[in-house]
Amino acid sequence: MGLDLSQCLVIGISSRALFDLEDENDIFNKEGVEAYSKYQLDNERNILKQGTAFHLVEALLKLNELSGKSSLK
Fold first, then answer.
1. What is the pTM of this model?
2. Distance CA 30, CA 7 (A)
3. What domain range includes position 19?
4. Nearest to 48 by CA among 56, 37, 40
5. 10: in domain
6. CA distance 43 to 19
7. Could you list the pLDDT tens digit for every one of the 73 residues in the chain?
8. Is residue 9 part of a domain?
9. How many folded domains does the chain comprise?
10. How far apart are CA 66 and CA 58, in angstroms?
């Protein structure tokens, strides 16, 4: 049986909005998939910079704390 989301607010946010991936996108567009893959592997341990939607997601997650309800299980 699937998860019942009928009483939940569901929001979709892209990874490019959540994280600042402009450098990665430029590499992909200008140098192609192989250069992009190499860049990703070379930088996989680096923490991504926050994107424009990052603070929105933080605020939305805090609504769970304010409501006293836990996250989905």
1. 0.67
2. 44
3. 15-67
4. 40
5. no
6. 14
7. 688 888 888 889 999 899 999 999 999 999 999 999 999 999 999 999 999 999 999 998 888 788 776 655 5
8. no
9. 1
10. 13
